[in-house]
Amino acid sequence: MGKVEExxxxxxxxxxxxxxxxxxxxxxxxxxxxPDAEVMFIGEGPGFHEDRxxxxxxxxxxxxxxxxxxxxxxxxxxxxxxxxxxxRPPENRDPLPEEIEAYKPYLTRQIKIINPKMIVALGRFxxxxxxxxxxxxxxxxxxxxxxxxxxxxILVVPLYHPAAALRSTQVLKELEEDFKKLPELLxxxxxxxxxxxxxxxxxxxxxxx
Length: 209
Ligand code: URA
Fold this sequence. Notes:
With 209 residues, this protein is α/β, with parallel strands linked by helices. 43% of the residues lie in helices and 13% in strands. It has a single domain, classed as Uracil-DNA glycosylase-like domain (Uracil-DNA Glycosylase, subunit E, 3-Layer(aba) Sandwich). Strands 1-3-2-4-6-5 form a 6-stranded mixed beta sheet, with helices on both faces. Helix 1 runs antiparallel to helix 4. The longest helix is centred in the last third of the chain and has 22 residues. The radius of gyration is 16 Å and the shape is globular. 40% of the residues are buried. The structure holds uracil (URA). Its EC number is 3.2.2.27. Pfam families: UDG. Keywords: 4Fe-4S, DNA damage, DNA repair, Hydrolase, Iron, Iron-sulfur, Metal-binding.
């Protein structure tokens, strides 16, 4: 089975899983992009516009994400975009720990299918999912190696959430600067020998997914 079919199958399984939270109130926003993307962008959860259009990052934060991607010559179609929680929490409240936990096995499988070299975690919740000890103000753009259950290493780079950048010009400036670092981080993540030239600021994390 190819990746497109595998992702379709996973989506159908999610739709059929009546135990998933937020089922009664919102659409399943599975994710979209290149099935074999080298980079996955993972946000917190769908908002109003995402729920309405059943696509991730299509509101104001999504427009900013598109622009930041275009600025580094990574068209939206060249990456994969999804969220930790795949249904909109009511009134855009923060996702609850049990909601994050319930969607986790599906996100794990989605990551395994796409098999990215790098995951860009957008905002506090996505960051904490992969890097529980990180702090966004301190660790934004700091790459960390995260081990999968299969023993594969994925580079996780936490960034400020685009919605936070829409509320603060200082955060926007930092997010723009951080985005410019992504192509180089990706290149370094691909070098096998010698070891990557950058030194991750954070120690390798335990196997998290
Ligand atoms: N914010 C998110 O975290 N995800 C989206 O898809 C949209 C806004």
